[in-house]
Amino acid sequence: MGILFAKLMTVFGDREHKVIIVGLDNAGKTTILYQFLTKEAVHTSPTIGSNVEEISVRKTRFLVWDIGGQESLRASWNSYYCNTEIVILVVDSTDRERLTLTKEELHRMLAHEDLQNASVLVLANKQDMKDSMTAAEISQCLTLSSITGHSWHVQACCALTGEGLPASLDWMRSRVLAS
Ligand SMILES: Nc1nc2c(ncn2[C@@H]2O[C@H](COP(=O)(O)OP(=O)(O)OP(=O)(O)O)[C@@H](O)[C@H]2O)c(=O)[nH]1
Ligand SMILES: [Mg+2]
């Protein structure tokens, strides 16, 4: 009965689903958060701490936390994990040098007990830049296929134009409605 009630609440849009946006500094997390919200590219500065916004997708409400990605801030990412349903990992698709570091952060995160039920959306951002890696290349470098305990998806996008972001929100919505 409890599960049925929770599902009905979800369908009628009464429950917020917690989402966190993580990734290295300069990946484009804050630009994505505000592109989700306003459908425009905003000017950003490096995030110290976090930003939080509510985003609605056809009556499904997400509470989206955008967390600063600078090295000194990464140790505190885990304070945001509790009750998270979706982790969005943003990757700067031109940043080949730090992809291994991103991979380590991703796999460390997914081992955390507070994220055991979370789904993972990897956004291969900055697709407008020439020489950006494709979503398939990033998927391979991050060894996403080795992730078995979490539902995951990779999506190419450009936070400046918003390309790829509506499809990302659709995936997020389908995930929370399915669970
Ligand atoms: N060319 C291009 N630039 C982008 C894109 N997305 C973000 N940027 C730029 O990348 C820079 C960093 O973007 P932010 O959104 O502030 O990055 P962040 O991941 O929030 O960084 P931290 O808050 O330091 O963790 C800004 O100059 C953005 O305009 C994109 O898709 N294409
Ligand atoms: Mg930021």
TrEMBL record:
Q: Give the record's keywords alphabetically.
A: GTP-binding, Magnesium, Metal-binding, Nucleotide-binding
A single Pfam family it belongs to is: Arf
Q: Which SUPFAM superfamilies match?
A: P-loop containing nucleoside triphosphate hydrolases (SSF52540)
The residues listed in the UniProt record as binding GTP, with positions renumbered to this chain, are: G23, L24, D25, N26, A27, G28, K29, T30, G69, N125, K126, Q127, D128
Record GO terms (molecular function): GTP binding; GTPase activity; metal ion binding
Q: Which residues bind Mg(2+)?
A: T30, T47
Does the keyword section mention GTP-binding? Answer: yes
CDD domains xrefs:
Arl5_Arl8
Keyword Zinc annotated: no
- Listed NCBIfam families: small_GTP
Q: Which family does it belong to?
A: Belongs to the small GTPase superfamily. Arf family.
Q: What is this protein called?
A: ADP-ribosylation factor-like protein 5B
* Annotated source species: Aldrovandia affinis
